[in-house]
Each structure stands twice: as C-alpha cells, then as structure tokens.
C-alpha cells in the first residue's frame, strides 16, 4: 500500500515557553489556558506541499534539564527540522536557547544541514514583552538558523505558517540527505570497482612475470643448441666411422683378406 512520506519535527525550549500550546493550536485548534507541563507527547497531522500529501510527526518534549542526554540526542537525530521556542515575555527563556543551540551543535553529526527555526511565542502579550522582535531576528542570523518567526497560540498568529515552513524545510532536508547518501553509495561503488580492476590488473602483471621467469633465457637456449649440435656431431662422427669401417671391410673382402676387430 502507498504510504506517505513522514516528516519529523522536534520542539525544544524552556518549560512554560509555549511549545505544547502552539502544537495543540495547530493540531486541535485548541488553546490550553492552564499550564500542564509536558513529559513527552507525539502528534501527527497530514500536510500538503506542492499538491503532495505528507505526514507531519511532531514531538513535544519536556524541558531540557529533565531529559537523559542519549534520549535527547536520539530525538535530535530523528528530527528533520527543529523548532527552538522561547517566550517573548521571558528573557531567560530566550537566553537559554543559546546554550541549547550549543548542545544541539555538539550532539549532531550533520548539524550544518539540519534546519532549525527560532520561534518567539506569546506575541499577543505585547505589554509583557521582554525580548524585542529585533533581538530574535538578530539571534537567528547570528546562529545561522533557517528562519525566525514570532507567534501566538492564543490568537493563532503565524501558527500555520510555522508548521508549513517546518514541513517544507524537513522535506528539503530529507531529499538532500537521500541525494547525499546515494552519491556516497555511488562513490563507494566506483571505488570498489576501481579496486577490483586494480586487483585483476595486478594479477595479469603477476602472471606475466611468472611466465617470464619460467620461459628459457637466451643463454639457456644457446646452451641447449650447443648440446644438440654436439650430439648431432657425435652421431655424425659415429656414422662416419661406421661407414669408413664398412668401406675398409668391403675393400679387404674384395682383395681377399679379412681384418678381425
Ligand atoms: N497569552 C498566551 N499565553 C500562552 C501562549 N502560549 C502558551 N501560553 C501559556 O503559557 C503557559 C505554558 O504554555 P505551554 O505551552 O504549556 O508551555 P510548554 O513550553 O509546553 O511547557 P513545558 O511542557 O513545561 O515544557 C500556559 O499556561 C499557556 O496558556 C500564547 O501564545 N499566549
Ligand atoms: Mg509542554
């Protein structure tokens, strides 16, 4: 059966920064007024990109301090895109992202190609703002992130935009990764072929060397020829002597005498 391509999103950020709220607003069109800290939750939703349908898997994580490092690094590896969330009403949640970003960098082998979106949540709470829009934008540029967006789970401002952008970046990341893998496979295949060709060439050269070793040298050929010549000379001499004796005998027989040898 035809199965849809899965795009994996991982959300990270301080407790209370608004991760669960923006996910719930996107998935269920629901804004939770009361705060219920997350342990770990998974959500999924169908999404269209260029008339094709994909499944967007969203991981809602617990605050960074409460999670095992291996588990976190697995979550990061699995993700095709990472959402770094801070609240515009809490400077601390913004500052802690710098350290979190550093941890992600150290944890991922393909950090440079993994897309990361910076999100400033709760922008409906303008009167409580502690982090300016410019600061968010500046940080995203300094850290070379893929995108920066402010949003509000309460008013739904930019909520769809976040996940549409996340899905597109995730798809791009997956395709580039697949292309790189197939290129690496081709390079490996070519290297193997070249190695095999080198080996068979070496074998041919070895065989030739072996044959050359076994083949007679000019010296041995001339020795053999000398032996053959001397042997034929010996044979010739013997025949000559026999013929001579025969002639002498015939001559003596003709002359009525015989030689006893
Ligand atoms: N006004 C307003 N309040 C928000 C918004 N988003 C979240 N909140 C409130 O902020 C509190 C924390 O939000 P959560 O979404 O639960 O935060 P979280 O990042 O999931 O927290 P953890 O699960 O502990 O990591 C809740 O009481 C929400 O009602 C928003 O866009 N506007
Ligand atoms: Mg939560």
Automatic annotation (TrEMBL):
<keyword id="KW-0342">GTP-binding</keyword>
<feature type="region of interest" description="Disordered">
    <location>
        <begin position="180"/>
        <end position="243"/>
    </location>
</feature>
<protein>
    <submittedName>
        <fullName>Uncharacterized protein</fullName>
    </submittedName>
</protein>
<dbReference type="InterPro" id="IPR001806">
    <property type="entry name" value="Small_GTPase"/>
</dbReference>
<dbReference type="InterPro" id="IPR005225">
    <property type="entry name" value="Small_GTP-bd"/>
</dbReference>
<dbReference type="GO" id="GO:0005525">
    <property type="term" value="F:GTP binding"/>
</dbReference>
<dbReference type="GO" id="GO:0003924">
    <property type="term" value="F:GTPase activity"/>
</dbReference>
<feature type="compositionally biased region" description="Acidic residues">
    <location>
        <begin position="186"/>
        <end position="196"/>
    </location>
</feature>
<dbReference type="GO" id="GO:0016020">
    <property type="term" value="C:membrane"/>
</dbReference>
<dbReference type="GO" id="GO:0007165">
    <property type="term" value="P:signal transduction"/>
</dbReference>
<dbReference type="Pfam" id="PF00071">
    <property type="entry name" value="Ras"/>
</dbReference>
<dbReference type="InterPro" id="IPR020849">
    <property type="entry name" value="Small_GTPase_Ras-type"/>
</dbReference>
<keyword id="KW-0547">Nucleotide-binding</keyword>
<feature type="compositionally biased region" description="Basic and acidic residues">
    <location>
        <begin position="211"/>
        <end position="222"/>
    </location>
</feature>
<dbReference type="InterPro" id="IPR027417">
    <property type="entry name" value="P-loop_NTPase"/>
</dbReference>
């Amino acid at each position: 059966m035809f199965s849809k391509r899965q795009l994996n999103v991982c959300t990270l950020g301080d407790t209370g920064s608004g991760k669960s709220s923006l996910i719930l607003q996107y998935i269920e069109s629901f804004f939770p007024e009361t705060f219920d800290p997350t342990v770990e939750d998974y959500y999924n939703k169908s999404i269209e990109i260029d008339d094709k349908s994909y499944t967007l898997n969203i991981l809602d994580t617990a605050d960074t301090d409460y999670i095992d490092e291996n588990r976190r690094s697995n979550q990061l590896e699995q993700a095709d895109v990472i959402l770094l969330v801070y609240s515009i009403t809490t400077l601390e949640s913004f500052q802690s992202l710098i350290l979190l970003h550093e941890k992600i960098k150290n944890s991922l082998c393909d950090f440079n190609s993994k897309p990361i979106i910076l999100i400033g949540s709760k922008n409906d709470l303008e009167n409580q703002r502690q982090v300016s829009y410019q600061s968010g934008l500046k940080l995203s540029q300094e850290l070379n992130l893929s995108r920066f967006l402010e949003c509000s789970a309460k008013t739904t401002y930019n909520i769809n935009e976040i996940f549409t952008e996340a899905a597109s970046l995730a798809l791009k990341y997956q395709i580039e990764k697949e292309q790189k893998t197939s290129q690496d496979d081709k390079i490996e295949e070519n290297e193997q072929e070249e190695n095999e060709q080198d080996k068979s060439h070496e074998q041919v050269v070895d065989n030739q060397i072996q044959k050359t070793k076994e083949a007679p040298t000019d010296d041995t050929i001339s020795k053999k020829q000398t032996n053959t010549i001397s042997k034929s000379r010996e044979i010739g001499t013997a025949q000559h002597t026999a013929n001579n004796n025969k002639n002498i005998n015939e001559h003596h027989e003709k002359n009525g005498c015989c030689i006893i040898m």
